[in-house]
């Protein structure tokens, strides 16, 4: 006789005997809550609850979701992520975080397993303080209903060395030159390695067609500091990381909390990485930023999360203050003097560091001499100084929403090097002879001195372009006309016009966002951009052509590869869903195809979605000594020369150009290449930090408009939710699929859409939606929307009557449609940028 499944929950059997045949027994809220009350500190997913409760019908699923929502709203349960919940009661946390002497560490002790046969799960704070991680079926466990069985890694497998790239809080990929394919390692086998760490892994076969391995040794840790929220109960503390990919909490003993308080954002340094993955790393608080959710705390936490510096070392400040501000006559005599020539700067209204200026004068032959004058930073920042070392380390200024983290101290960035009006300033210049049609006749590069006559904001320059009135109107309009000719020639040669929209904020004195808007690029912006592009291109070409044979003179190039054909094909298929066709048969006409698409989508609902995805499809630009060209700009050679106040590669380019102009020999390539790689990495970090600060401010702004209605477009789709981007301010939030009125929707990922099960209604990328702002979580930087329900009142009443006829239970979405037979797996409530 076949034995019954012993792992089934006994509660399910009891329910089955009580229920009349053919009538499903309703699931009560008490039954749901009792599971959590009996297991304080544990986390349960919807599926685990369903197994324990013996749920078999759609109505019972609706009961479970309705009760979970009610318990969450009454603060009896805490919604963690995906469909995971935990008891909110603080005593559960106290019981789950016993002192070290009370932890489960005995060798023969059975692992923690849920009563219904589920696997050990991760709690918000750890358990005893142990971190248990749950995996979804299909990753490393073929059967989701079977308990986890500890498996021994293949001790005889091949080992390789690589770098950790965290994918989620469940697994990471190890990128190694010794493997053609990235190796997946689940987090309980990472030995607490974090993003960027160098590890040695042992390969142990494959899963889902991808090699799988275990970390056997962490060779180099990139960082040992973590940013997160401190939770303290009974003197015991845990830091829950802000970074959602981090898969562990950090235990902080009472004596290592250093007066930081419960609920504050802190920076914690990990001092002990345990060998046993079931225990939490131990750390100490090194900086507290204040209560979580406050502007200063959150922005400072973002800075710490990305390893951005808070201040300059004292030695750096001392060096900057010691630099004389008087320009000697000897120094002036070594430079070309542009002080008598009309010169001005055009920058944002709130800018303080002016690192570029334009001069213009007419030559005897009727042509125009236009000078692009760049702050001569390397005159002040000399090699082998503390200033130089700090600039190299920072590599870039970082522009967060409400502050700038400069590469150079203020005395240099806003003082000595800033090309302020009515002051003599030292510059490194690229001077061009052009006619009014934009044709270039000659170029000159060298050290100069200038005297800016006027400081323009972009708005002031734009006013002179539009009204043809005001001081220097003739010069600005002439420069604008020539810039347009240069731009037209650039696009004729294959430059690509796709670009993402930039979000800006209006802030009050405390940094609170009063408004969000999309920055508009007008002719004044494009004027400056074209002449900076011209200078960067011509500097790169000049150095490249100094030597006709390999090895060429070493130079810092800004390169941009052509897009990967597979990614481009995917983008073309995506664009086709909107009725746009991309002909990829001729690579030489690719830029024309992309530019035509950019024009087609202009002003249409899908514009931002397609333009953003097009930019993501492109390869990432980087710094290198290889003269590989720039695909997006259609330049054979391109460098960064025009912003040395805020970019270290520009300082490198200045030094190399000066060296070659003085007849110097070729510079060794390896050290320059290493500095290029470092600058590229720091640039990525800066971009991620800037995006995080923008997202935080967007959430902060949306928290003041809860309940208001906006028009948006569908910008993303997952199995559990639909992302909608508000048109007027580009704030993005999620609508859960289960809460879309009138039907339950499932993802059709092959066609980039969701489809209603009953109505067959289709919602796809770029569709316009009316949404209501439902919630804005400052701590998680997430925004939740709900769709405006425009259905007739009669339809809503009929749905309500159907629910009442089933016993008044209601659906988990509060009267917004029925649950499906299968629940979507995963879901984090919202995504972070």
From TrEMBL:
Class of enzymatic activity (EC top level): hydrolase
SUPFAM superfamilies xref list: Nucleic acid-binding proteins (SSF50249)
Residues covered by the S1 motif domain: 707-788
Gly residues: bias regions: 808-817
Catalytic activity entry: Exonucleolytic cleavage in the 3'- to 5'-direction to yield nucleoside 5'-phosphates
Entry EC number(s): 3.1.13.1
Composition skew (Low complexity), residue ranges: 9-21
Coarse class of the protein's main subcellular location: cytoplasm
Annotated spans, Disordered: 1-25, 97-124, 791-833
Record-linked PANTHER family: DIS3-LIKE EXONUCLEASE 2, RIBONUCLEASE
Function: 3'-5' exoribonuclease that releases 5'-nucleoside monophosphates and is involved in maturation of structured RNAs.
Family: Belongs to the RNR ribonuclease family. RNase R subfamily.
Protein name: Ribonuclease R
Gene name tied to this protein: rnr
């Amino acid at each position: 006789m076949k034995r019954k499944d012993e792992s089934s929950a006994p509660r399910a059997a009891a329910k089955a005997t009580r229920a009349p045949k053919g009538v499903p027994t309703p699931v009560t809220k008490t039954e749901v809550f009792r599971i959590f009350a009996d297991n304080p500190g544990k986390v349960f997913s919807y599926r685990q609850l369903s197994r324990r409760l013996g749920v078999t019908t759609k109505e019972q699923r609706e009961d479970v979701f309705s009760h979970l929502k009610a318990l969450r709203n009454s603060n009896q349960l805490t919604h963690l992520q995906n469909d995971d919940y935990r008891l909110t009661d603080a005593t559960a946390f106290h019981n789950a975080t016993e002192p070290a002497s009370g932890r489960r560490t005995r060798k023969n002790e059975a692992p923690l397993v849920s009563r219904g046969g589920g696997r050990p799960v991760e709690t918000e704070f750890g358990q005893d303080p142990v971190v248990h991680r749950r995996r979804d079926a299909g990753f490393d466990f073929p059967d989701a209903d079977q308990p986890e069985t500890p498996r021994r890694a293949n001790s005889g497998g091949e080992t390789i060395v690589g770098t950790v790239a965290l994918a989620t809080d469940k697994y990471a990929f190890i990128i190694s030159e010794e493997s053609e394919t990235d190796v997946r390692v689940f987090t309980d086998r990472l030995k607490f390695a974090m993003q960027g760490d160098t590890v040695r892994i042992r390969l142990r076969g494959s899963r889902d067609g991808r090699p799988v391995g275990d970390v056997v040794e962490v060779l180099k840790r990139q960082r040992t500091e973590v940013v997160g929220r401190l939770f303290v109960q009974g003197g015991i503390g845990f830091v829950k990381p802000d970074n959602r990919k981090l898969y562990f909490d950090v235990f902080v003993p009472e004596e290592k909390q250093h007066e930081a308080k419960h609920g504050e954002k802190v920076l914690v340094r990990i001092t002990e990485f345990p060998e046993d993955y079931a225990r939490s790393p131990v750390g100490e608080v090194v900086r507290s930023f204040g209560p979580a959710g406050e502007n200063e705390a959150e922005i400072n936490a973002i800075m710490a999360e990305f390893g951005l510096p808070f201040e300059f070392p004292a030695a750096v400040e001392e060096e900057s203050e010691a630099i004389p501000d008087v320009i000697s006559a000897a120094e002036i005599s070594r430079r070309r003097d542009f002080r008598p020539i009309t010169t001005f700067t055009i920058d944002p209204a709130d800018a303080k560091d002016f690192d570029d200026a334009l001069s213009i004068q007419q030559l005897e032959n009727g042509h125009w001499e236009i000078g692009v004058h760049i702050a001569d930073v390397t005159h002040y920042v000399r090699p082998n100084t503390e200033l130089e070392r700090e600039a190299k380390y920072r590599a870039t200024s970082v522009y967060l929403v409400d502050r700038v983290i400069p590469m150079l101290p203020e005395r240099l960035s806003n003082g000595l090097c800033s090309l302020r009006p009515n002051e003599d300033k030292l510059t490194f210049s690229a001077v061009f002879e052009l006619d009014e049609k934009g044709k270039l006749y000659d170029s000159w590069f060298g050290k100069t001195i200038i005297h800016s006559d006027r400081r323009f904001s972009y708005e002031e320059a734009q006013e002179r372009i539009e009204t043809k009135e005001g001081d220097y109107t003739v010069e600005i309009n002439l420069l604008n006309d020539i810039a347009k000719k240069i731009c037209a020639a650039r696009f004729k040669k294959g430059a690509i016009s796709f670009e993402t929209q930039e979000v800006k904020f209006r802030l009050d004195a405390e940094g609170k966002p009063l408004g969000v808007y999309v920055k508009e690029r007008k002719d004044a912006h494009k004027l400056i951009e074209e002449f900076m592009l011209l200078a960067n291109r011509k500097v790169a070409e000049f150095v490249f052509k100094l030597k006709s044979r390999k090895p060429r003179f070493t130079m810092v190039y800004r390169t941009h590869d052509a897009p990967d054909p597979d990614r481009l094909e995917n983008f073309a298929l995506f664009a086709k869903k909107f009725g746009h066709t991309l002909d990829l048969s001729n690579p030489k006409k690719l830029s024309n195809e992309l530019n035509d698409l950019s024009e087609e989508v202009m002003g249409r609902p899908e514009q931002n979605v397609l333009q953003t995805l097009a930019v993501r499809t492109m390869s990432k630009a980087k710094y290198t000594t290889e003269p590989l060209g720039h695909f997006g700009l259609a330049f054979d050679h391109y460098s960064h020369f025009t912003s040395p106040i805020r970019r270290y590669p520009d300082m490198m380019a200045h030094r190399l150009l000066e060296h070659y102009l003085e007849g110097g020999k070729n510079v060794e390539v390896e050290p320059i290449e290493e500095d290029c790689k470092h600058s590229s990495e720091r640039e990525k970090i800066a971009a991620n930090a800037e995006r995080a600060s923008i997202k935080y401010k967007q959430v902060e702004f949306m928290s003041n408009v809860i309940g208001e209605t906006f028009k948006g477009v569908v910008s993303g789709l997952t199995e559990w939710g639909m992302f909608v981007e508000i048109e007027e301010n580009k704030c993005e939030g999620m609508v859960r699929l289960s809460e879309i009125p009138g039907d339950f929707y499932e993802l059709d990922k092959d066609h980039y859409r969701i489809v209603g099960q009953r109505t067959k209604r289709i919602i796809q990328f770029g569709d316009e939606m009316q949404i209501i702002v439902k919630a804005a979580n400052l701590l998680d930087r997430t925004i939740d929307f709900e769709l405006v329900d425009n259905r007739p009142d009669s339809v809503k009443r009929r749905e309500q009557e159907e629910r009442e006829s089933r016993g008044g239970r209601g659906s988990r979405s509060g009267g917004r449609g029925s649950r499906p037979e299968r629940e979507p797996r995963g879901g984090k409530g919202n995504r972070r940028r």
